[in-house]
Structures are given as structure tokens and as C-alpha cells.
Amino acid sequence: MHSLPRALRAFSIRLRGLFRNRSAAADIAAELESHLQMHIDDNLRAGMTPEEARRQALIQLGGLDQTQQSVRERSTLPWAETLAQDLRFALRQLRKSPGFTAVVIVTLALGIGVNTALFSIVNTVLLHPIALPHPGELVCVDASKPNFEHGSVSYPNFRDWQRDNRSFTALAIFRHNGFLLTGAGQTERIHGDLISSDLFSILGVKPVIGRLFAPGEDEIGHASLVLIGQGFWTRKLGSDPNVIGRAIDLDGRAFTIIGVIPSSFDLNVGSFRAQDVYVPIGQWDTGALKLRGAGLGIHGIARLKPGITLAQARDDMNAVSDRLAAVYPEEDHGLRASLTPLRQAIVGSVQPILLVLLAAVGFVLLIACVNVANLLLARANARAQEFGVRLALGASRRRIIRQLLTESTLLALAGGIFGLALAAWGTGAALKLVPAALPRAEQIHVNPLVLCFTFLLSFAVGIFFGLIPAWRVAAQQPQNTLREGGRTVHGSRHRAQDWLVVFEMAAALVLLAGAGLMIRSLMALSRTDPGFQPKGILTFSLAVPYSQAISTDDGARAYLREVDRQIKSVPGVRAVSLSGAAIPLTGNDDEQLFWLSSEPKPANANDMHWSLLYIVEPDYLQTIRIPLLRGRWFTGADRQDTPHVVVIDEDLARQFFPNTDPIGKVINLTNPDNVRATVVGVVGHVMQWGLDNDAGFPLRAESYTSFLQLSKNSLVSTTGFVTDIVIRADNPDTVFPDIQSALHRMNAQQVAYGPETMDQFIAESLAARRFSMILLGAFAALALLLASVGLYGVISYLVGQRTQEMAIRMALGADRSNVLRWVLKRGVTLAGIGVASGTVAALLVTRFMASISLAKSSIIYGVQPWDPVTMIGVIVVLMGVALLACYVPARRAASVDPMRALRSE
Amino acid sequence: MSDKPDVWQGTLALMVLKTLETMGPQHGYGIARRIEQTSGNLLSLNYGTLYPALLKLEQEGAIVSEWGTSDNNRRAKFYRLTRVGRKQLEREARNWEQATAILARFLSPAEEA
Fold first, then answer.
1. Chain-chain contact of A9 with B59 (C-beta, under 8 angstroms)
2. Which residue has the higher pLDDT, A555 or A149?
3. How confident is the model over B57-71, as pLDDT tens digits?
4. Does B10 contact A75 at a Cβ distance shorter than 8 Å?
5. B10 to chain A: which residues are within 8 Å by CB?
6. pLDDT at A561
7. The listed CATH number (2.60.40.350, 1.10.1740.10, 1.10.10.10, 3.40.50.2000) that belongs to domain B11-108
8. Where along chain A do its domains lie?
9. Model ipTM?
10. How far is A570 from A480, CA to CA, in rounded Å?
């Protein structure tokens, strides 16, 4: 009957009617008055007496007030008017008790704020870790070998896998590679990736300008092409759109630019990062590329064909691998393709800890809600008399419930808004703690989804907890409340509050215990001996372009000696050593394959013994300070033309020479090729893989080879060489610029780059742990704060309710200290029950935490999940804070003036 | 009075519109009297119910109001039909006629055979 526009028009008029009540009311009154007058006139004309005329007119109208009321209701929106009234009243009520209001809003803001912050992080990191099309189809493809679950893929195997598989729309490989950029200002070391043609099309990345590599352009021997990153394009080429077709010099060779890769592209998997340049893998100038058995740090990525499951792809690739192993037993024996969903490869390591943190933050929110519920409950009880009076005066229960709900919704909304502000700030603060450990960290922000999440949460909290007291109030009989004079102490209502406080205490204890264990784990880790002295060590890399000077064995050695001499001449530098292979704790690793002299030469690499390989100079021992356990270390007398010697660590000695003296034993090394080397010394084991997870790696045996015994070919290629350098200095944090200028003076073409102290590496390796410890600690502190506020609230309420009772007790001669003790006892009992049940819960939770791992070791490291120090410490802290929270109101109770309290009755 | 039927819900608006169409601009009291007279005094009209109905029609844009002076020199608020109101009247009158015609067919015994 009513068309929508007309209904809308009416609605908007009525809405406006809300705000101009006065003139409209006068208008209605005037209209009805004139109506009555006209009617009275008529009645008088009909011969009625004036009184009768007015009476009849009023009867026919149906009462003046009633009419006015019904017109007024039609002229505005009655429900909106009630709402406005409720809001005004609620605001007035909240303003009347600013303490209560502030505590509730702050509590909710904290709970909602930390929840939103963490949810924002989880949303980006866990739910949307890959900003690429159809990320679910992307899988990482590695080679699983005896010592490596996710080992590198050799180029020949890649080509065969690419040809033989039936599961992938495409398979690509990539390998990080540094390049020396020459001919564009000062020689500079830039980051690059060697990639196969398909990589970017698999990932769905489109070039900003130009094109991607075409099939075949990644083959060995093809023309030198290069894709450049947008960052590099901007920084070095001024974003010139005409760069396509121009050439840049990398490692002394000209590469033609064919396209620009957007800077938004990043893939946080393994070593793959947004780079300066991308070069076809076939351009890699190393003979090892053609070796099927070579481990060159190449890894693969593929996109599953639509409809192919991961399991089907695994079966397919296993079959492909097994066929290759049959054809090439020497290289591919025991080697299979291993497929990992990209998402898992990216977030797998942080997922458990983020979920633990999410659970912890959920606890905090729960405590916050319980606190708010408790406060609302206490407040509703305290206002029981007010509601009693209103009910007695004819207010409807429905109206009172609505009033209470309005109040709590208002509180929840305010809490939500403050919480959101807190979340925006907190997300940024949390990310500053650990920028690198989280995938897509730079893209984390408070997003609209999270916004909705927060608001729904605050609404739900407000409605739900507003409802409990509201429902209670509505159920009560007004006369009871009035008779009790507002001093209502319903046992049941009290018990509910007690239980809430007990729960809060228990939950706070669980969080404190978790945080305590994380702190203890980090303390244990910081005491861990890595097997050398990390303090004072600085590592960096040196890239030297090819020149005549390093073209002979002697020339190369002389050059390196000069490098050492230049670095050593820098003030503060104590010791220097080149490091050509693995460096502990840095993520650099390299392997020495060997067989014992008592064994026949194994048929293939995977049947050999494996050890970590360190290629160093004689000063290395002084530089990183490993204890020499037996025999001797390398000296300058161990040269290319003297018998080859090797130093092993205690793990290798124990593993391969149990119960015998390894000194003087001969082993066959594969690096350099098949040389027989005599063991001359045994050193202590160093933690290669990290402080917390070295023990978790199968490959732990370590062997050392001296640089001086190698030919220049093991270092220098046709483009020059790159080596790591390890130094010990008094000032490792500040010495690098001096070293850089010393090396620049020596040869302006060489570049020293990438300085990082060992302390930095250690801090980075513990960053995820530190991040979770700080967050968990913050959550626990928050929980402690909220729980003590809750306890304080309940005890204060109790004291407030019992003031008169206590005044009577005191008037009758009770000691003040008795009252104090009575209140404290009550609080401590509650806290005690909470602590006891919390301890039981904490033991269960920490045992669960111990089963959660970060990288390769448990997040609880070096302490037992039931660590008594942590548990007792946490209990003491919690009880101490609980006592304090009770003491303040208890003091207030004890200092009551009995006469005044009784008089105020 | 009690044996007279009350005004049916929803028909009051139609009566008001029709009255205004017939009489031209009119004040509330005049409309009320007119409706009563037209019904042949068979209808019990509580004059008070007229005013919310008038307000609703005005909010919907079917009528507009203006203060003026009555025949007896009293200040009164006069209501006037708008173009929208005229259309509404046409439509509702048609609907109503249809409805009564249908009902009449149901209720007429002659049609049953």
C-alpha cells in the first residue's frame, strides 16, 4: 500500500521530529485547541450549556492528553526517543562513577586491543602469507637426501624433473647469487637470483615494463639477458623507461636488460628475496652446474596442475626420482624430490608460536571480559535498590533491562574504539620487535576484517555481560530489595563473583607460568656455550674481480696474504682469517664428503660420510677461539706442496674413531678431489646450526681444511672470487668502515660488504623466541594486572557492602586488626584457590607448550615444563600482587569510623 | 453510541482524502464532522484518531497543511490535497472498490448456485 519513497519521506520527517519537539508540540496543542473551540461553538449553537458543550467536545475527541500523545508519537520515532533517553541516562550514570567507567573501558580496550593487534598479524601471516594468485597451488620442490630433508636440486635433475613430471603446470628453480656491478659508478656488490625462465610466470608476476624470460633463454650458452628489480631500476637507473635493451656489467660481463620486476614482489621462502637482478641460471659460470651430484644451493618451486593433489604430485615425483636413481645410481641414489606447500614453507616455522600467542591473547581477552562482567555484576547489585524503586514506581522490567544493556553496550563500544587505537599502535610496536622472522611483516596493518572482528567482539562482550545482571535485576521482587535497604547480599550472586575472580587468578597464573618458562628458556640459551667465543667476532664478505694478479696459485695466495695484512693493520683488529665454506651460526654451510682409509671408495656421494666443512687460515683458531683438544692446528708450514692435513672436531672423532686416538689416521677427502689427508688435530665441537637447535641436526661432524693447501682453482673463477672473512676485533660494531677503506685503498675494484657481528647472528637466530617471550610476557603482565583489578574490585565491593556490619563489630569492641585480617583472609582465600587451580592448569599447559617447536627445537628450552623455580616464582608474584590488591580496600575497611558509618544508615 | 461500528483500520486515510477532494481545503474538525455526516451518523468516529492519521498523510506528502481562518473566524489549520494525494486517492479508491466487489460476490447468496 505504501510505496517505499513515501515511507522514507515520512521516516525522515519523523526523525527530524526528534530534534524539534518544542515548536511541534505547541503547534499540535494550538490545532487541538482550535478544534475544541469550533466543536464547542457548534455545541453551544445546538443549545448546550457551556460546561456541557466543552464536556461533549472533549468526549468526542477522546481526551485531549491522549490525542496529543498519539499525535506526538506519530510526529517522532518513539523507539528512537526512548533510545536517546536511555543513552542520555546511561551517559549520566557512567559519568557519575568515573572510576568504574574508566576501569571497564580500559580493561576492555586492553583485551580488545591486544586481540586485534595479534589477530592483524595472524591474519596476514597465517591466513594470507602469499600475495600471489592461487597461492594454494604453489609448492616448494627440494631434493631430500640422507643428511638434508630439503636439500638443493642439481641442474641436470631439475631438467629431468621438469621434463618427466605430470603434476606441474611448470617447475622452476632459483639460487641466490651476488654480483659485482661495474661500469655504473663505484664498483658495487648487488644481490641477484639465478633463475629458470618459468619462475615469474609460475608465480604470476608481471613485469612493470619489458618482458619475462622466454622458454629456452635459461639454457646454458644462451645470450646474456637480465631482469632487474624495480628498486634497482629506481636506484641505479632513475626509473628510465628506455632501459630495455641496454646493458649492465655484472661480474665483468654485459647483460642486456629485458624487463623490470615490480618491487611489490617478494617470496619469503628459503633464501629467496626481492633482488636487484635476476639472471638466467644457464649464465652461471661454473662447471658444477652440469654435475648431477652437485649441491649448489639451488631450490625449486612449482605450480600444481588444477585438480592434482599434493599426494598425487608426490607419488608422481617419487616415481620420476626413482627412475632417475636407477639411471644415475652414482649421483641420484637415495635422492628424491620433496614437495612442501609454499604456505607451509613460509609460515610453518612461525605458525605454532603464533597460535600459542593467539591462545594466550584469547586468555587475556577472557580475563578482561570476566573482569568487566564482574564489575557490571557488582554495580548492578549495588544499584539493586535504585532498580527496586523504579520497578515499584511502575517502570517495566523490559525498560530496565534495556537501560542496562544500553549502558553495557556503550561501555563495550568505548572499549572497542580505544582498543582499536591501541591495536593500531600495538601492531606497529609488536612488528618492530621482529621485522624479519615473520613473512609479509611489512604488509601487516589493521585491516577492515580485523576492524569488524573488534567491533563484533566488543558488542558481543557488552551485550552478553550486560545481560546477566540485567536478567538478575529483572527477576527480582522489588519489595525484597527495598526491604533489605539496598544491602542485598544474595549468597548466589556473591559466589558468582568469587568464582570469576578465582578463574581470573588461575588464568593469570597459567600465562605467567608460560611467560616465565619462555624467559627461563632464553636465559638458558644465553648461557649456552656455542663452542667458541662469539663476542668480538665480525664477519663480512669480500668480492674481488678477476685480474692478472690472482691468475696463478702463488699470486692468489699472495693477494690473500695482502688482504689479511691490510685488515690486520686496522686499529682494533686482533686476528683475521678467510673462511671459504661454513661459518657457525650464520646460516652458511658447506660439506666435506669423505671415506675412511679402511673403507673402499663408496660408489656414490650419498653413501659417503658427511661432515661440515670449514676452509680457513691458520689464524682461524685465534679468531673464533675454539679449544684445541688434541694434536695441533694448521700452521704456515702446511702448504700446497706438503702432505695434506685435516683437523676434525670431537663429534667426528667420537663418531668415526671411537676408543682410538684419531691423530695420525688417514681419511680420503672429496674436497679437494680424492686427496688423502692425515688427521693432525682434534678441536671442540662448535654449534653450526644455532644455539637452540644444533643438537637437532643429523649433520654435526666437523672438519677443517687449510686454505694454504688448496689450489687457486678452488677459489678463483673466471670472474674473480668471493670469500667470507672472519675477524676478531675490540670494536666489532664500529670497525667495518675502516676495514672497507683499507681494502679499497689496496684495490679500488674489490668490494667488502655485508658486515655482521656474531652477536647479531645470535640475536637474529633467537629473534622469534625473543619476540614470543616479549609478547607472552606482556600478555602475562596484562593478565596479572587485570586479575588484580578484578580481585581489588570484588574486595572493595565486599568492603563497601559490609561497612555497616564492620562498624557494628568495631562499635562492639572488635579490633581494627581483626577487621583487616577478616578482609585479607577473604581475598587471600580467593587468590589461593585461584593459584592452586591455576598451578594444576599451568602444569598441563606448559607440558603442551613443551611439545610445540620453533624451528627444530621446543619453545621451552633448557628447562623442564614443571620447572620449580618458574612455578614458585610465579606463585609468589601472583600472591604478592593479590595481597596488595586486597590490602588497599582492607585498610579502608579497618579505618572506618564506626559512628559515621552507623549514622549514615 | 456503542452500537455504531468503529472506523476500520486503514479506511480513515481514504475517507480523509476523499473528503478533502470533495470539499477542498478543510480543517481537522471540519473533516471529522463531514466524515460523520457522510456516514449518515452510522459511524462512531473518535475525533482524536483523526489527527495522527492527518499527520501521517502529511508526512507521506499526500496532503499539506496551512494555518488559516475558519468560517466562524477561528484560527484553524487547513489541510489540502496534493498531487501525490490525489493519485493515492484514485489508487486506493480503486483498490477498495475492487475489494468490496469481490467480497460482495462472495457474500451474495445468488452467486452461490
1. yes
2. A555
3. 888 888 998 898 888
4. no
5. 1
6. 92
7. 1.10.10.10
8. 4-76, 81-132+349-488, 147-333, 490-528+773-905, 537-731
9. 0.86
10. 89
